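Internal QA ticket QA-208
Title: Verify multi-chain structure generation after dependency bump
Assignee: T.L.

Test input:
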Amino acid sequence: MRILLVGAGGVGSAVVPIAARRDFFQHIVVADYDRSRAEAVVSKQVAAGRRAAGGDLRPEDRFSAIALDASDEAAVTAALREHRCDVLFNAVDPRFDMPLFRAALAAGADYLDMAMSLSRPHPSRPYELPGVKLGDEQFAMSPQWEAAGGLALVGMGVEPGLADVFARYAADHLFDTIDEIGIRDGANLVVEGPDGQETFAPTFSIWTTIEECLNPPVVWEDGGWHTTEPFSEPEVFDFPEGIGPVECVNVEHEEVLLVPRWVKAGRVTFKYGLGAEFIEVLRTLHKLGLDSTEPVRIRGVAVSPRDVVAASLPDPATLGERMRGKTCAGTWIKGTGRDGEPREVYLYHVVDNEWSMREYGAQAVVWQTAVHPVVALELLARGVWRGRGVLGPEAFDPVPFLELLNEYGSPWGMREQ
Amino acid sequence: MRILLVGAGGVGSAVVPIAARRDFFQHIVVADYDRSRAEAVVSKQVAAGRRAAGGDLRPEDRFSAIALDASDEAAVTAALREHRCDVLFNAVDPRFDMPLFRAALAAGADYLDMAMSLSRPHPSRPYELPGVKLGDEQFAMSPQWEAAGGLALVGMGVEPGLADVFARYAADHLFDTIDEIGIRDGANLVVEGPDGQETFAPTFSIWTTIEECLNPPVVWEDGGWHTTEPFSEPEVFDFPEGIGPVECVNVEHEEVLLVPRWVKAGRVTFKYGLGAEFIEVLRTLHKLGLDSTEPVRIRGVAVSPRDVVAASLPDPATLGERMRGKTCAGTWIKGTGRDGEPREVYLYHVVDNEWSMREYGAQAVVWQTAVHPVVALELLARGVWRGRGVLGPEAFDPVPFLELLNEYGSPWGMREQ
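Actual output:
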């Protein structure tokens, strides 16, 4: 397998050291708008000099860097062909999903992303009805992918991604009927400022966080999707492994759109443990129009306020040395167990920043997002997972995924509630 | 008097209809970086067709528009000479003070601004000691202005400006000794959004508001200046004419630097009735680094986050139709009266947005800032106020100013406390 990894940001730069230990692929071309960023990721891996377990290829033969504009569909198609890539691994902001997705289809390559094509609110009733939903543009093109014999595996990070695998696993192996599937994400991470004091610094792309948190959250219920006001239905969820209780609110997220397509459940929700401070920051950005992606003009130059917010904050990928704590992603399932009794479980995956920094030099949140698509690519490379068209993670057998994840040294857990 | 008015923003565009009713000047050249903005202000006045009381000049002969970059000192000097202007009236952000101030000196014109040259915090003890203070750069050049026989009247808006005139008036006519001079600014203005709901929209330049609110506030006490943490010493002040109690906090402002140079007082403070919501917005902007004027790079283009914040919010000058309420600026003096008894007065100026919109088509806050420098220019044009060097409003006799303000139809008030 030859992979075109588009995006050398937080997740992209964590993918390389994870993949470097595995031997399922021949080559990864790391592509970024800023070529020097892609080169830095490759150089770091070459300097580490680590070879795949049992492999004989040196890192300098398995990784290379190119400049690529993710919004330039023709350039991406050309890069896939020039580098003879079998799959495009999309690790950039979801606003670039569609050009990358179409470029892969045009080049005859498979496609993987960790966030689906963007939504647009309902024009008149945004907090009741969905408008264009996450992934709608991608699913609309599923017939073309099927006809071409290609696979687009969408939403294959941690959330969405592992969370969807957990939902399918619960349906296949733990439950007879499922009342509710609730994805719950929380952390106790703190970031120290240069002065040693705790500081405000988002641990994941603020661009994407704004997108998912300020759009109307979507809920699956009674066989259909509806939307609510941002930050609705606050609830305190007790996260495992010492993280403890965190206030979570409804957020627009892919799992709610993906899970019901393959798994039968009365209700599907996604709640994010943002915390009061982060919610206040997001509300303020919205109040000031700084969440907007519509350009404003500054002395003749057009810039998007949201891009400026992202550029003003520290790059989340660089925070690892100053972070402490753990992050947890998981899926809470309530229903009737195989024995006919009520059952409630939380399937989860926790990453300790100290561990991910020591083992991979990557901070916990981006490492956790990066590991699952690498596992999925390995299953595809080995032919364990196969498919055609546009598919979510829950379209595949979850068992080999969860087994292989353990082999990657990052086990998942299950808590009966 | 021929005037070069630099800046056709909120205050600049309110200056024109105020000045148009008066006959003390021959011509105002309205200059802006964006020529169309300057032209729009002039065209609006020409369309209104209003002539000065008793004057025979038509507006089209008294106002003209040019493009001018306020940061280009040589271009400003050339414009002053080309248009034979006697005075430069600075109505742009204070970051342009120094090039404009130096250009006026070079061209042999007088100079007036409404906010002094910028401060820089103390490098090691920013919340205890002042670093470079507001106006320091300007006062340092006072000898050159004196030698050239020119006048730079600095801080001559409403606050600073009228507030300083009030301080001098109290010292000259109301008090024997003054314990404290506290400038207090508050409003009950609300802005309606397009949906008819109250919305967040600053009624004055957010660029300047960030500058003054996030810098360490300065206090004059015991014969010297010291600084505090932003938003320190909150206090509820009861504003007159139905505005009522508003929470005020210490803010860095020119009056604290100007008043003690000419008026003897034990303590001088400035507190601004920001309100809890605005304070939270400013704190959040600071937390995210969006208050910064240091450019960030977005795909090769350098932009200042603070400029983007300003561009994302509605132009304060355009809010008048959607605003309701009153704004109050004033000076609270405590000390010993002429009769030897303790005395406490609040000298104030209130503008009702409904009135300023009806009378001048300008919203209350920018109108209130614009009227006082026009009154001052009239006093200078008529030779009632005279001076050399760099002087604040309190360097002049306050009585003719306060009398002429009444003639402008916007009376001031006094409340014994």
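Spot checks passed. The interface with chain B takes residues 33, 200, 280-281, 284-285, 287-290, 292, 296-299, 301, 303-305, 307-309, 311-313 of chain A (CB under 8 Å).
Status: verified.
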